[in-house]
Each structure stands twice: as structure tokens, then as C-alpha cells.
Amino acid sequence: MAMAEGDGKITHVSDTALMIAACRAYENGLEDAFVHDPFAARLAGERGAAMLGALQHANVLRLGIAIRTRFVNELLLDALATHPITTVLSVGCGLATLGGSSFRLSCAGSRSTSPTCSVTKIDSCRVRKHAAGASASRWI
To answer: Is residue 55 within 8 Å of 23, Cβ to Cβ?
Structure first.
């Protein structure tokens, strides 16, 4: 079954990527959001929102994902600003856009001697196919 098909039931570990994207999409709508990811709603789709909505304590997951995303983004942005990083490898990244545009723009601000840094994301075939259909992310 493709990731975009079916109801809100989790049938494969890769389905959780949709649910996590739904957490980021929900966060986008908050006035005091921890993170902003303009692609999250499109990546999550109706199925991701349905999986998140089916959880008994979805608010706990949403807050946890928002805090984790903010922390990882700030850690990475700081590393890019203070070290000559030319490549970022995100393994098992799901549908993460690493906090949306702030991360993509940060590579240009890296202290690297290279004009830009390279970002490579690795995940399962199911996740890669879904992301390729929903965004312009670069996958291997």
C-alpha cells in the first residue's frame, strides 16, 4: 500500500512520517509556533492528519515534535554558522524538511569555503516516493 492511501491506521513504520509531518503542520497554525514548515501540510496530507487525530494524546506528540524539531534545527544552524560544514547527511529523516526554509537558507550562511553546503536525505523507498510526489526535496 502506498503511503497516501488508506485510512488513519498505521500499517507500516514509514506511515509515521506522515503523522510527524502532520505535527509540524499543526504547529504552523499556532500564533506562538516553535517551528514553521510551509511544506508540512502538503507532505502530511489527509492521512497524516487522520493518524495524528486518532491518537489519544496527540497534543503530547505535537508538542514533543515541535520541541525536538526546534532543538535539532537550532543545533544544526549553530553548527553551520560556526564550523566549515560542506555536507549534511540526514539518515532516517522521514518527511522532515529540517524546519522548513530556515534550514535550507542556513546552508548558504555556512562558514564553509564552498559557496553552499550539500544536503542529502536518506530513508525508505516508500518515504522517498511519497516525498518526491509531494515536494521538491532532494533524495538519494
So the answer is: no
